[in-house]
Amino acid sequence: MATTTSYWTPDDFNVFTVEGLEHRMSALQTKIQPKFNELGEEFASQLSSHGKGEFFPHVAKHARRTVNPPKDSWVAFAPAKRGYKALPHFQIGLWNTHLFIILAVIYENPDKKGIAERLQANRNVLTDLPDTYIISGDHMKPEAQTLKEAGEAGIEALLERLQTVKKAEFLVGRHIPREEAVTYSKEAFMELTRQTINELLPVYDVIVGG
Fold it and tell me: How far is residue 101's CA from residue 98's CA, in Å, rounded to a whole number?
């Protein structure tokens, strides 16, 4: 009987337990980055077809690290060839504990006040999302609240912070526990990612003022 091969494996998540910068980077480059490259090609075209500019994939290189090995890694998507951190962007990535598919506004973004105001005025694009989706104010931490846990008050608190705190961030999307992620075939994972991006695009449109 044919068995379906999982797209993600426990070994992928275990990369983040490999000791030492050099060894972990080597494991990242051989195990995970080929998948990020594949996902980059697949979903840059989906995002470009949305009509808000041509999106380009950016696989995290962790090039500035000299001592501490990365605790997570990702491929990001933004309508810019050179960089993505100053722009609202999508990410697909892994921590040791879970996989994430998110839309992110991080601290380098110069328009955080405007973004927060647009989201406050169109909060329905957040409250219409599945209540299992997460929001977070810090892309450096794996923890996040679901929209159900946060409620309207939690969403409002994050948006207020985005307006007033220089280092504030806003992330929204899906977290998938590693135990669940390793059950998806390639086809099933691609479909889940497509669906997640489609559900996040109305939020992106508000963020960019579209």
Answer: 10
Domains and CATH numbers, the chain: 10-207 (3.30.930.20)
Pairing of strands 89-95, 145-146: unpaired
Helix (H) or strand (E) holding 78: strand 72-78
pLDDT, tens digit, 9 for 90 and up, residues 76-130: 999 999 999 999 999 999 999 999 999 999 999 999 999 999 999 999 999 999 9
**Exposure of 205 in the CB half-sphere (CA atoms within 13 A):** 14
- The band of 210, judged by pLDDT with boundaries at 50, 70 and 90, is low
Q: Which residues of 10-28 are buried (b: 16+ CB within 10 A; e: fewer)?
A: eebbebbebeeeeebbebb
